[in-house]
Amino acid sequence: MEASGIYPFDRETTFNTKVTRNALPLPSEHLHSDSNVIFSFFSFLKLPDLAELSSEDAKFLEMKGCLHVPAKPILNEFVQQYFLHVHPCLPILNEADFWSMYHNVADPTRKVHSLSLFTLRAMLFASCAFVPAKVIRLAGLGDTRTARNTLYSQAKLLFDFKAERDALAKAQGALLLTYQSSSIELHCGSLWLTISIQNAMAIGAHVYNLHDEADAHGYCKNTKKRLWWSILLRDRILPLGMRRHLQITPQNFDLSLDCMTEEDFEDEIYHSCVYNPETKRLLARVLRIQCKLAIVLTGVIMLVYSPNGFGQPKFMSEEAFLKTVNELEDVRANLSQWSNDSKATLGPILHSDKVHESVALYSGLTFMYYHAARLALCHFEALTLEIHQKYIQDSHKRLLERIRDELEDAASCITNSVKGFLTRGIARHLPISAIAYTALPLLLNALDVKLSASTSQTATRQRRFRYYAEIMQSYRDRYDGTDGVAAFIQKALQFADNVNISIMFQQTQSGKRKSESCGWPEVFTREPRLYLRLWLTLDYAFTRGSFPQDADLPEYVRELDISRLAKYFPEPALFLESPLPAPSPLKRGSVFEIEDAPETQEQQLQQHQQGEQPTVPTEDARSPSPSPVSSTTRQNPVHSEFHDTAEPYYSYPRQTSTSASWPVSYDEFSPTFPPQDLDGGYLDFSNFEDTTSESPAVASFDGAEQGLNYPVDRLTTLGSNMKFGFNEEVPMWTDNMLNEVLGAITTQSAM
């Protein structure tokens, strides 16, 4: 391994003196602190390749605390939190086997009697976010964020120094390290995922179905199946959240193979130290629907996110355009079918407040992924429609309105999920991946607050926004990755402010300002390119890890006719100097408690004040949309957890193209992509020696991204001929609320 610059020595120039296992200090002689002991204190922990390291390397690892683990009372808390909050969605270990060796129980039926120190260190890192702060302080690790960074570094050092060479242990440990993300290493998890995939393939985990018996290395089918489906889950959750391409495609894995079932966990259902059998069975059921969702997400991600990173779709021929539309319809139908099947499978537990909080948490999280996929699909389609308006001129407006309704429903469902997590007090158990899934809904809710037309509407929208403020604070307390995401959101809001300053204070030709209700859905339908620019800005930031310059975005969203937009936006409300009443306290209830449609409440209130008969919506949100209605009179749909469409969602023109051929670059819309690595080339799954020994570095890893890491404080402009400035008359209380949470996050590193 080449020197990486983070070690005080170059490994190639160190002495090659070897140290044997018994040359290490004895456990009784080597207490690193009152709360840590040498790993050999626990008989089930193994690190056989430590003896192959030079004495200098071994001493360095010991000095960094890599060879120590928390004492038993503290370790108990870490492993309990691991099996409570990591294992349910990433079951790489057999829980029954673990507890047997952890408690040193002599059980001849158990085939696994030891655990790699590297795997345990990765477990400590993954579970750290859920361990009580008091326990973390007792372990001498400071606060939660500091502890995560320390534990991650210690696990990474073991990998970098090749202290563990067993492919299974490396695959398991690397997969747990995919939970690492920070403002410096935003995409670190993707690199660890690559390492895990290649080590898993080295032991044949991807062909687990070919052999029922244990192989020559003792790896049984169940172990391989657990590992591979856990990898597949991470290879769907990470790309969907980080807006990146897949690493495991249908070309290198048969997705028709049966996914994880309750039978695969039968051995551990009655041997768990943290859950009763009933809860274990429910969690196994949730995991199964997650695996089925992973299969459906394959089509979504391959269609929406280019394997070349942040792509700019090019103009297609009408034939290619219609082919893409057909793929969209197929993927959306698969998502809808998954939703129906999952509802039937989980049944009443989705809305029950009597199930274990972990069942509520992971079922809610699963549906958050589903709604995020709906958002991604709608955005991709809207972008495709904007580029190819000439093919759908007659139906363009109607199609945008239907996409808007889908977007609004999906975003509202995520908001209700966030509210449910907070209501039940389980938001603190959300994994780091949830940050990426709540970023866009947070941004949209902030925009809604800014576009409020009255104080009552502002109060309603502010209450919804406060849910996201609370959950961002929860993230901030545990995850470094929150810092970068908060900066991205702030920059996107800054851009929105610049646009709003230019349009909200302009008068119509009659000299009167509009006062109609307005929110981000109206922005989407009336000026879709303005909305798409905000979405693409955030997507670029997640994809590349930096805020975009104007030239980084597609040309069709760079220049906007701002003067034309004035008539669409309401007059800013005159806000009272006295503070708004505090929102009602959250009531404990269902994770998916459906909130009354706030926009409908606002409209009914205005009608009542004017002596009109309130209009009551009669359509079910899950029924097909009626004929297009103008956005000024439409009723917002009641947002439900499941959005099922009884008829084909779209009605695109199907005529054969008779126009001249257009320049086409169809590669970016192809439904199948070969396996790609993170440098833009093909993944070579046959060469494991060179690809499994390097851990992620701090530097940029995507060759296509080199030179694009612009400073995050660079303000995006709409065009060189447009000037924008902040106007002091604009209500800034929304930004002040953001600063209470997001400002504290972004300045955390300087404290």
TrEMBL record:
GO molecular function: DNA binding; zinc ion binding
Keyword Nucleus: yes
Coiled coil regions, renumbered to chain: none
Start and end residues of each Xylanolytic transcriptional activator regulatory domain: 80-330
Composition-biased stretches (Low complexity): 600-613
Region Disordered, annotated ranges: 598-642
GO process terms (BP): DNA-templated transcription
Keyword set, alphabetical order: Nucleus
Domain of life: Eukaryota
Alphabetized PANTHER family for the sequence: FARB-RELATED (PTHR47425)
Name the record gives this protein: Xylanolytic transcriptional activator regulatory domain-containing protein
